[in-house]
Amino acid sequence: MAFGTSRFAEQGYHPTSVSEIVTGLGVGKGVFYWYFDSKEQLFLEILRDAQTDLRRRQQQAIAEEDDPIRRIELGLRASLAWAEEHRDHNRLIQFAATEATFVGALRRGQDIAVADVVRHVKEAIAQGRIRDDADPDLLAHAMVGVAGHLTRTFIYERGEAAGGVADSVVAFCLRGILGDP
Amino acid sequence: MAFGTSRFAEQGYHPTSVSEIVTGLGVGKGVFYWYFDSKEQLFLEILRDAQTDLRRRQQQAIAEEDDPIRRIELGLRASLAWAEEHRDHNRLIQFAATEATFVGALRRGQDIAVADVVRHVKEAIAQGRIRDDADPDLLAHAMVGVAGHLTRTFIYERGEAAGGVADSVVAFCLRGILGDP
DNA sequence: GCAGTTCTTGACCGCCCGGTCAAGTGACCG
DNA sequence: CGGTCACTTGACCGGGCGGTCAAGAACTGC
User: Fold this and answer.
1) CA B178 to CA B181: how far, in whole Å?
2) Cβ neighbours of residue A104 under 8 Å, at least 6 residues apart?
3) What is the pLDDT of residue B180?
4) Chain A residues near residue B138 by CB distance under 8 angstroms
5) What is the pLDDT of residues A114-137, one digit of tens each?
6) Contact A170, A78 (CB under 8 A)
7) Does position A1 have pLDDT exceeding 90, yes or no?
8) CB neighbours of B130 closer than 8 A, spacing ≥ 6?
9) Average of per-residue pLDDT across A157-170
10) What are B41-82's pLDDT values in tens digits?
11) What share of chain B is helix, strand, coil (3-state, %, to 5)?
12) Using the beta-carbon criterion (under 8 Å), do B145 and A141 form an inter-chain contact?
C-alpha cells in the first residue's frame, strides 16, 4: 500500500497501472488481486487510512486543551505537521476531490473533521468570543481552505517548514474568525 | 472544445476518451487530430482559455477602482462570479493542479493572478493599512485558498449563490489581512 | 509425509485507448 | 471544367490496460 501510494501520488491514479505496482514490488499480479478486489479499492483503502491517520493526529493534538480557540489553533498546527510528513497522502486526497468516483468517500471523512471545527466555533460563539452572527460552517471551511492552499503552496511547492507556515495560517485564520471589522 | 470541457469535467480527463468526444460531437476522429495535436493539447488549450477568461474578468472588475483594498474585494467577487458561471472550467483547473503534466501550465497562469493581489497588498502596506510585518505573498495565497475552497464547498456542492458566498469570502479575507490581533 | 489451506506466479484474455492514414468530399479558382 | 487543397471519414494499428486463472509453492495440523 505504501508503494501504491507513492506511485499514485507521483504519476497520478490513472497513469499508474497495476502491473507497474506489482513489478515495482517484485511480486506477481495475483498477489495484488488476492489482497484487493480492484485498483479502485486499493485507492479507497489508502484514502480511508490517510483520513483516519490525520484525524487521530488532530485528536491527539487537542485532547488536553479546553479552550475552543486554542483547540482550533492546535488542530490547524497538527494538520500542517501531518501534511508535511504525508505529502503523498495529501496529494491523493486532493486528487480524490476531482474524481467523481472518490468524492463520496472523501467527503465522508472531510465532513467529520469539519464538524469538529464547527463545534469549537460554536462554543466560542457561545462564549461571546466570536461575533454571534457568524456562520460556523462557513468559518470552518474558510480555515480548511487557508490551511490546504498554504500547505500546497508554501510547504510542497516552496519547501518551507510546516512550523513557520502554521504560524501564518493560524494568525490569518484567527483574525478571520475573531477580527472586528 | 466546449464539449470536451464538459466531458473532462464530468468524468475526468483520463476516463474521457477521444473517441467519446468525437462520437458525442457526431464527427470523425480525423477532425479532432486535424485541429489538435493530441488529447493533452486540447486540455492545455482549454486550460489556457479558462485562465485568460478569468483574468479578463478580474481586470474588468477592478479597472475603475484605485483603492487597493477595494481592488482586492472586487477581484475576489469577480472570481467567485466567474467560478459560478464556469463550473466545468474551474473543475479542470482543480484537476490540473493534481497532474504533473499540467501543473506547469497551470502555475504560469496562477502566478500572474496572485502577483496582482500581491501588488495590491503591498500598496496597502505602503499606505499603512496592513501591518508592515505581513508577508504579501502569503496573504495573497491565503485569500486564494479561502475563495477556492468556499467556492467548491458552498457554490458547487451546496448550490448557494455566488453573491452571498462572496460576501463571506470578502469579510473573512479582509479581517485576515487587516485585522488587529 | 500427507492433506488441506493459504498464498504466489505470470501467461493470458478481451477490451479499448490514443493516434494514423488512405480514401474521399466539396468549395473555390483559373 | 479540371485541378488544388482545406477538411473529413472511420477502419485500422500497436500497445497497454484491468482483471482472471490454472498451476504450483509454502505452510499448517495431524
Assistant:
1) 9
2) none
3) 73
4) 150, 154, 168, 172
5) 999 999 999 999 999 999 999 999
6) no
7) no
8) B121, B124, B139, B177, B178
9) 97
10) 999 999 999 999 999 999 999 999 999 999 999 999 999 999
11) 80, 0, 20
12) no
D8 C1' to B5 CA distance, Å? 22
Contact A69, A120 (CB under 8 A): yes
* Whether A173 contacts B176, CB under 8 Å: yes
Q: What are the chain B neighbours of A87 within 8 Å (beta carbons)? A: none
Task: Write down all domains in chain B, each with its CATH number in brackets.
Answer: 38-178 (1.10.357.10)
Burial A15-49 (b: 16+ CB within 10 A, else e): ebeeeebbeeeeeeeeebeeebeebeebbbbbbee
| Contact by Cβ (8 Å): B91, A98 | yes
Residue A36 DSSP label: -
pLDDT 10s digits, A15-45: 999 999 999 999 999 999 999 999 999 999 9
Q: Which three cell numbers stand for residue A31?
A: 498477489
Cα A176–Cα A178–Cα A179 angle in degrees, nearest 5: 70
Tell me which residue in A91, A169, A175 faces B98 most closely, judged by beta carbons: A91
Residues close to nucleic acid strand D (C-beta < 7 A):
A 14, 16-20, 29-30, 33, 38-40; B 26-31, 33-35
Alpha carbon dihedral B10, B11, B12, B16, in 10-degree steps, equals -120
